[in-house]
Amino acid sequence: MSENADKQSKIFDPSPRRIRKAREDGQVGKSNEVATAATVLISAIAIAMTGEQIMTAFMNTTTTAFTRAPDAAVDFSAVLDVFVTGMISIGWSLVPFACLLMITLVAAHVGQTGLLIAPKALAPDLGRLNAFKKIKDILGPTPALMRTAVAILKIFFVGLVVTVVVLGDLDELRQAASREPAALLVSLGQSVVKLMFAAGIALAVVAVIDFIYQHTRYINNLKMTHEEVKQENKEDEGSPETKSRRKSMYRELTLNKVLEEVPKADVVVTNPTHFAVALRYEQGVDAAPRVVAKGLDALALQIRRVARKNGVPVIENRPLARGLWRKVKVGRLIPLDLYEAVAAVLAHVYRIRQQQGAIR
Predict the structure, then answer these.
(1) Residue 120 parent element (H or E)
(2) Which of the two residues, 252 and 11, has the higher pLDDT score?
(3) In this structure, what CATH number is given to the domain that contains residue 297?
(4) What is the pLDDT of residues 312-326, one digit of tens each?
(5) Are residues 207 and 268 in the same domain?
């Protein structure tokens, strides 16, 4: 009951982190039927390509055996020599076929899961020795039902295509029975290749169905509850204390960056307590005065303090301070509608500097 409730509460798709962890543990969604279908199809192709070579090696071995049969009656070593030579010849003819099958099996698995190296899956784990869990996984209602369904589909599809191919080749096989042994073997070989191709295609259909089911089951097993999502987000983003500390550091860095620009300003326009906006105008460089720093409340107070400490004039102009705060971002030029007001403030600052004999 609790297990069903747990499954019902898993409504969120697995996160990339959860999928990555499952792969590290060796858990992947794959179908063994894909490898079976690929093996049968590739075997059919390999036999079609190398069947003549294999048959030639077999016929040569058989011919040699019959030719040396009289010697074998006298000398047992002759029998052994014929057998070893024949097996080596046939074995070499099967090497390309065996290599192709090995490559096919590897490709069938890698194609489904990607290149997977999971050391954790190879490490000793006493949990894997839980016989009850293993039996439940194998004989549980859903896995057992699916295995039965796959087996029935395989029998049905393979049986159907084999029947169709055999009935189609039946007349030709009857005629081949009256031919020479070599011609009969060729006909049988062609029929076997047809059967394997047909069976491979039927198995491929079953493999597609099973792969979709296995992948869907894999994703469903990895789905997350609301609590698991919250816990993962908490681990990814950090605890509230960590986030608060990160925000504090960000504010401190931002404050330092803002205050670094204040000594370079020509004037600081204030509200006088709520807003503070630092302006700079470099003739020949800026097309218009630029806002280099601005702050509200506590930050405004810091800007005023830094300005006074560095000899930057602080001018009170409530409407202009509010307008600059609301309309202009830090680093941007002032808009056209504020030109006149800013020009008046800068002119006032320049007059003061001239009077003080401290023109910059």
Answers:
(1) helix 119-122
(2) 11
(3) 3.40.1690.10
(4) 999 999 999 999 989
(5) no
* Of 243 and 13, the one with more pLDDT: 13
Q: How many percent of the chain have pLDDT more than 90?
A: 7
Angle formed at CA 215 by CA 212 and CA 219, multiple of 5 degrees: 135
Q: Going along the chain, which residue ranges are E strands?
A: 267-270, 275-280, 290-296, 314-316
In angstroms, rounded to a whole number, what is the distance separating the alpha carbons of residues 345 and 247? 36
Structure tokens at 210: 């099973």
The upper half-sphere exposure of residue 206, i.e. CA atoms within 13 Å in the direction of its Cβ, equals 27
Choose the final residue of a domain: 234, 263, 279. 234
Instruction: Give the count of beta carbons closer than 10 Å to the beta carbon of residue 36.
Output: 19
224 neighbors 10 (Cβ within 8 angstroms): yes
Q: What is the distance between the alpha carbons of residues 196 and 158, in angstroms, rounded to a whole number?
A: 10
pLDDT tens figures, 105-131: 888 878 887 777 655 545 555 554 455
In the chain the first and final C-alpha atoms are separated, in Å, by 82
| DSSP states along 144-192 | HHHHHHHHHHHHHHHHHHHHHHHHHHHHHHHHHTTS-HHHHHHHHHHHH
Structure tokens at 4: 């069903």
> What global pTM score does this model have?
0.51
d(C-alpha 306, C-alpha 313), whole Å = 11
The whole-number pLDDT of residue 333 equals: 92
